[in-house]
Amino acid sequence: AIGILSNIDEDKQRAQKLLEKAQRDPLTQYYNKETAQTLIQDWLSTQPVQNALMIIDIDDFKIVNDTLGHLFGDAFLIEATSRIRQLFRSEDILGRVGGDEFLAYVTDRQDPAVRKCVKDFVSIVGSAGYSVAVGVATESAGGIDVGALCRKAEKRMYLDKEEHYRVLREQQGR
Length: 174
Description:
Strands 1-3-4-2-5 form a five-stranded mixed beta sheet, with helices on both faces. The protein is of the alpha+beta class and about 170 residues long. The longest helix is centred in the C-terminal third of the chain and has 26 residues, at about 145-170. Strand 3 (about 95-100) and strand 4 (about 100-105) form a beta hairpin. It is built from six helices and five strands, in the order H-E-H-E-H-H-E-E-H-E-H. Helix 3 (about 60-70) packs across helix 4 (about 70-85).
């Protein structure tokens, strides 16, 4: 019998790097939408504790890219998401849903801790002169899927966005 011994560590490391690259947004290093939703669904089906999903949208970010350029917009997103990452724990799930829309799934957190995360998130983006709309959906009973939780959070995010625009119109006398 003839056998060949080989070290497969390098192949495994290369495969792991490729998997991580496929699961991450290249700009922010947050999970991409599909991976984030899969991880959240896995958590929902195994961990029936107090959880919250936040959907976050940076208001009018298209104007930033259109007026200051995409390089500035990308640099802003990199800096903001780096600072925002510090608000969350390693077991929380951060994802980039689209251009200026993000999600954060905070696990095993009580309502005051979630509110503090939202407040700090808004403060970080606000310190750069931008506003955000945030929708939060909580789940503690189990039995809900990630799609329903996302729809609930998105609905609340759009209500928050409408409120921002209503206040802005009032301030402008419209």
